[in-house]
Amino acid sequence: MDALIIAAGFGSRLRDLSDSKPMTPVAGVPLLELGVRQAKAAGAAKVVVATGHEAEMLEAALCGLTARCGIPIEAARVDDWSKPNGWSVITGAARIDGDYLLMMADHIFSDTILTGLAAQGGKDRGVTLAIDRNTDNPLVDPDDATWVETEEHGFIRAIGKSIPVYDAVDCGAFLATPELSLAIAAAIAAGKAGSLSDGMQALADAGRAATWDVGGAWWLDVDDPRAHALAEAQAPRELAAVYAAAMGI
Fold this sequence. Notes:
The chain is α/β, with parallel strands linked by helices. The chain has one domain: Alpha-Beta Complex (Spore Coat Polysaccharide Biosynthesis Protein SpsA, Chain A), CATH 3.90.550. The protein is about 35% helix and about 25% strand. The protein has helices spanning about 30-40, 55-70, 85-95, 110-115, 180-190, 195-205, 225-240, 240-245; strands at about 1-5, 25, 30, 45-50, 75, 100-105, 105-110, 125-130, 145-150, 155-160, 170-175, 210-215, 220. The strands form 3 sheets. Strands 1, 4, 5, 6, 8, 9, 10, 11 and 12 form a 9-stranded mixed sheet that branches. A two-stranded antiparallel ribbon has the order 2-3. A two-stranded antiparallel ribbon has the order 7-13. A hairpin with a 2-residue loop joins strand 2 (about 25) and strand 3. The radius of gyration is 17 Å and the shape is globular. The protein starts with a strand and ends with a helix.
């Protein structure tokens, strides 16, 4: 199993803190390094990073990150980083054979989330999404969250930022199969913009989009200064093993 980290976007809501969202430090460790180390701890053999905005700078940092983290890392540059994030998935997934952990560069997770998610594959699904059923989680920004409506058996009925009915929030971590990038490409061919949610909804409509409840485990979307402050305060405790490895303790 490999991992794909999406790190191609502009990161406008963190521009006051950093010129590069993926390289924004959280308690001294860049977000991208936290993601790479978490993917490795969950069993990934290789990490592909989808780059776009300021790609040259980010790609130049990957060699040092490979050495520090002890896992192969390669870049997959998106032709047009201004397009929706599904294009990054298509570009990155082309470098991966088989199933993979899919993560957003600005999301961080307690250790149990990625390790638990990595064990959720099955022939009945093309993707499994980590969800939090605590829709009132105080760490979640309700104006930016992607919401999920599930069916009786936990498969996705609807997903998006503005769906009217929901019972969970998307945590930003997926166990994907090759079906996901194919679904995004099919959605684009059908006239959609090409967001990850477009592909997820297509798989949901086909009964192929499963979920896995994180069960109250800690996670955070570090998307703005408020969330960054929360991460600075909480991440070293919640991600103790990752920080210990990063600091060489």
